[in-house]
């Protein structure tokens, strides 16, 4: 972009904000958050809005679109999803760190620490670290969750804690300090730390979601893969300093992969077991997001086909069978659960002045301060099914809440007992509200959430008022008597009720705007100072030169040079920036392989390239091309378009390799997908915790996988091999046969 264009846009944006009292808005798409320096880009937008007085103004501020959705009735959903009505706290994990470690993508990390460190940072210690070292340090200091937690089974650890008679935190802190107990994150390739079982619920983790697809196949599944690069050990690169290196990388860590899906996705193709589940019109469910103010229903118009069941019935069935067969193996057990320092808790100021690492002897390991919090949780495994199908006693005893706000829920528990009835069977759940069906589950969410229960909303605003010293109840009191039921949303989608869980309000006079209540209700911002902050003084932020928002160029992931000559002898090739926009010719991340959608595009995977780059390699529209780098390779047809700028290649995400995908000349296997040429890369400033707003929160804060800085090598395919008995490629010049030809 030209300098003068940036200046013009900035001045016009500010001028409009001045004239309209802040009604200048930035609409943000998901693609922005796919760059390595995504946070700096986002901060630049926020800075501009703050400086122009646009934040919290109706018609101004920012509006994020795809990729950053949150759940509206979240405080109603959490007890159901994480069983906090029966046991607290839940064990959770941030997926980016988990898959970066357990697919061994860290073993191939080419981005060096000094490339992203500030030139003013003279600490030699940083330059010796790798990104997996930083992630390990973050996990052991209680900034990010870890899964598995320790090399010792948490149930065995629970027995040891109980036997010792010491508080769980004291026992674990002493054990990690002495070295008797080791965090799993320090040695992710040790067999005792491998994830063994993975259940995938309606997620295409091996397809549209998993950046570094071929590494998933190689190291997590141990199956045929297309990884072309060598790891750091083979290349003689700088090895991690704090994380254990194994000369031989493990392949095939998982013992069992189970997927629930209503279509045969890429993940299903690689799964040991596929459980067919219901589609949108075959089940009862709720559909919400923070971008839309309505609660939408999914209603079963017909029963699930054949042996399919709804998601709820499948997991209920698993819970029932598990409760039966675990007897004699697992009973009432003590489970040691470690949790990172949480946002919106007192502990988020655990290390507000400086960063101290207990492992280096700079301080003692103190649970909830310099290391994760430690809790001894009772697990009653034979009663899993009874707990799954009822609302537990902790909501009436301890209440509910979110974002640092809590409220009493005794009334809601009684209402659910009347609405869903109570459990009459003998056992641990007798007398508790029943959650037997999917509708019962939906009603539980709707009853507990302030967004769908006006009485709860008023209680939540009162709770916040006790903190701020102001009256906020007026935002919900006109809807205090409203309780949205499942039958209500079936009749008509219902608009949610304003809740302190969100910083915007629902009003006929005000557009939903993030930060509205902070500005107009004088609610402190959830930061270290309670104000909007532009400067971050955390030690890690300063080390990477990100105290203030500054320009950060794309990073060099070094994925093309080593393979360009290896595979490019005598071939016309071009290196292009690889961009994966939100899906085209599909329904969100589903149904690219639907016949109608395939007809709209080219009948299979496609990539878009510029006319200039096409001429460089002798490609015309609809030719078969191959894109590759050290991460893997993919095959697709070329869409040559004047709308694509030179130097860029576009591949709309979620095009899978299950329909019309020929073999790859590079890998010798069937061509890959868009994530075959990407790899997860971590950024240390995403790992900070125990520091006010820079503290972990489920689905809110943690490491993010980026893939927009990736480059690929593109060339025309010389041979189109469909890799089947009939060898359609040789017989028909690379074209798939028509039904008439097959008949003949």
Please give a structural write-up.
This protein is of the alpha/beta class and 744 residues long. It has 26 helices and 18 strands. A 6-stranded mixed beta barrel has the order 13-17-14-16-15-18. It has a 3-stranded parallel beta sheet with strand order 3-4-5, with no helix packed on it. Helix 12 (266-269) links the parallel strand 4 and strand 5 (273-276). Helix 16 (410-420) runs antiparallel to helix 17 (438-448). The longest helix has 18 residues, at 3-20. The protein is globular.
Largest sheet: 6 strands, mixed, barrel
Q: Can you tell me the residue ranges where pLDDT is under 50 for at least 5 consecutive residues?
A: none
Question: Which overall shape is indicated by the principal axes computed on the Cα atoms?
Answer: globular
User: How far from one another are the termini?
Assistant: 57 Å
| Helicity, as a percent range | 25-40%
Question: What's the mean pLDDT score?
Answer: 93
Indicate the proportion of strand residues: 5-15%
How many DSSP H or I helices? 26
Across the major sheet, the strand order is 13-17-14-16-15-18
Q: How large, in whole angstroms, is the Cα Rg? A: 27 Å
Structural class by sheet pairing and helices = alpha/beta
Record field, number of beta strands:
18
Short description:
This protein is α/β, with parallel strands linked by helices and 744 residues long.
């Amino acid at each position: 972009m030209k300098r003068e264009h940036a200046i013009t846009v900035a001045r016009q944006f500010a001028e409009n904000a001045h004239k309209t009292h802040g009604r200048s808005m930035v609409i943000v798409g998901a693609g922005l958050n796919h760059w390595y320096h995504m946070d700096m880009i986002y901060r630049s937008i926020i800075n501009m809005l703050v400086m122009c007085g646009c934040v919290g103004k109706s018609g101004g501020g920012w509006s994020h679109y795809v990729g950053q959705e949150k759940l509206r009735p979240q405080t109603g959903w959490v007890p159901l999803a994480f069983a906090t009505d029966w046991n607290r706290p839940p064990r959770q994990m941030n997926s980016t760190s988990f898959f970066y470690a357990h697919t061994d993508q860290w073993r191939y990390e080419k981005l060096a620490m000094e490339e992203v460190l500030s030139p003013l940072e003279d600490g030699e210690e940083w330059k010796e670290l790798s990104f997996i070292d930083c992630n390990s340090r973050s996990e052991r200091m209680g900034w990010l969750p870890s899964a598995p937690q320790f090399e010792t089974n948490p149930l065995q650890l629970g027995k040891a804690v109980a036997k010792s008679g010491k508080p769980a935190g004291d026992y674990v802190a002493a054990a990690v300090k002495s070295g008797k107990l080791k965090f799993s994150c320090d040695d992710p390739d040790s067999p005792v730390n491998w994830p063994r079982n993975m259940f995938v619920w309606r997620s295409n983790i091996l397809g549209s979601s998993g950046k570094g697809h071929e590494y998933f196949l190689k190291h997590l599944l141990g199956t045929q893969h297309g990884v072309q690069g060598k790891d750091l050990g083979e290349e003689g690169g700088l090895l991690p300093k704090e994380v254990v290196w194994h000369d031989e990388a493990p392949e095939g860590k998982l013992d069992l992969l189970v997927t629930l899906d209503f279509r045969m996705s890429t993940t299903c193709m690689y799964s040991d077991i596929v459980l067919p589940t219901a589609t949108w019109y075959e089940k009862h469910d709720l559909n919400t997001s923070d971008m839309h103010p309505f609660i939408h229903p999914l209603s079963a118009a017909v029963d699930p086909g054949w042996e399919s069941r709804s998601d709820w019935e499948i997991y209920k069935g698993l819970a029932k069978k598990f409760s039966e067969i675990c007897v004699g193996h697992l009973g009432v057990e003590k489970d040691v659960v470690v949790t990172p320092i949480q946002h919106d808790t007192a502990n988020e100021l655990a290390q507000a002045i400086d960063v101290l690492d207990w492992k280096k002897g700079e301080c003692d390991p103190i649970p909830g301060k310099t290391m994760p919090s430690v809790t001894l949780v009772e697990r009653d495994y034979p009663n899993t099914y009874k707990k799954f199908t009822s609302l537990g006693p902790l909501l009436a005893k301890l209440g509910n809440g979110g974002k640092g706000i809590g409220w009493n829920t005794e009334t809601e528990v009684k209402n659910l007992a009347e609405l869903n009835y109570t459990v009459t069977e003998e056992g641990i759940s007798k007398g508790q509200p029943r959650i037997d069906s999917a509708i019962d589950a939906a009603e539980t969410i709707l009853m507990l959430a302030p967004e769908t229960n006006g009485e709860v909303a008023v209680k939540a605003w009162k709770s916040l008022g006790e903190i701020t010293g102001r009256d906020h109840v007026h935002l919900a009191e006109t809807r205090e008597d409203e309780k949205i039921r499942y039958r209500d949303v079936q009749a008509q989608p219902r608009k949610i009720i304003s809740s302190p869980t969100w910083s915007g309000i629902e009003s006929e006079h005000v557009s939903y705007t993030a930060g509205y209540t902070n500005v107009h209700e004088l609610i402190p911002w959830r930061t270290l100072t309670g104000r909007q902050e532009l400067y971050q003084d955390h030690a890690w932020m300063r080390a990477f030169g990100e105290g203030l928002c500054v320009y950060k160029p794309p990073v060099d992931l070094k994925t093309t040079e080593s393979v360009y000559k290896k595979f490019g002898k005598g071939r016309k090739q071009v290196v292009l920036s690889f961009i994966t926009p939100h899906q085209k010719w599909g329904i969100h991340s589903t149904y690219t392989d639907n016949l109608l959608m395939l007809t709209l595009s080219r009948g299979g995977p496609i990539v878009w390239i510029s006319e200039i780059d096409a001429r460089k390699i002798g490609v015309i529209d609809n030719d078969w091309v191959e894109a590759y780098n050290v991460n893997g390779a993919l095959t697709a047809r070329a869409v040559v378009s004047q709308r694509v700028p030179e130097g860029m290649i576009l591949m709309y995400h979620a095009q899978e390799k299950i329909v019309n995908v020929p073999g790859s000349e590079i890998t010798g296997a069937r061509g890959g997908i868009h994530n075959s040429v990407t790899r997860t890369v971590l950024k240390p400033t995403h790992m900070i915790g125990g520091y006010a707003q820079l503290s972990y929160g489920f689905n809110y804060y943690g490491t993010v996988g980026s893939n927009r800085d990736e480059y690929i090598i593109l060339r025309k395919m010389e041979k189109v091999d469909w890799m089947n008995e009939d060898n359609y490629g040789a017989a028909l010049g690379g074209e798939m046969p028509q039904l008439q030809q097959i008949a003949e």
